[in-house]
Amino acid sequence: MSENVKNDNHLRDVRIMSERLSLLYYHMVKNIIEEVGEERAEELVKKIILDYGTDCGLNTKANVEALGEEAIIENYHLGNDLPSVGWEKKDGRTIYCPFADVWKKLDFEKWGRLYCFVDQAKYEGYNKDLRCFHDKNLLDGDDCCIVRVENLKK
Questions:
Q1: What distance in Å separates the CA atoms of residue 21 and residue 30, rounded to the nearest whole number?
Q2: Is the CB of residue 75 less than 8 Å from the CB of residue 64?
Q3: Nearest partner of 97 among 79, 81, 85, 111, judged by Cα
Q4: Full-model pTM
Q5: 3-151 architecture in CATH?
């Protein structure tokens, strides 16, 4: 554990919770694979992530609108989508993701990467005109994650 994490209770708490959630996802998916096979498991996981991400996006939208703001990309950050600590960013790139860190250690990149499609579902749930792209992803072997969001109407 880095010195930064040891000395910051909030960061440590988010990292602990992130580790637990990524382990929960790992065990859930692993058991789904064992029960129904890889092909059907992939279909189910994609459906689950789509439903989950859409709910997250709708929740973010509700939070933004409760502030009297419009659900546009410029206001997305107002919706409390993710914790303000836990991930490490540099120059607009995510260089550390606590979920990816766990899934890489478990050799679970393929299935962890399916989780990342939560981003596409979140943004579309938030605003149907938004499309999200992963230009880079740590679970694809890249050195960072780059998420790009575009408005289809612009």
A1: 14
A2: yes
A3: 85
A4: 0.90
A5: 2-Layer Sandwich (3.30)
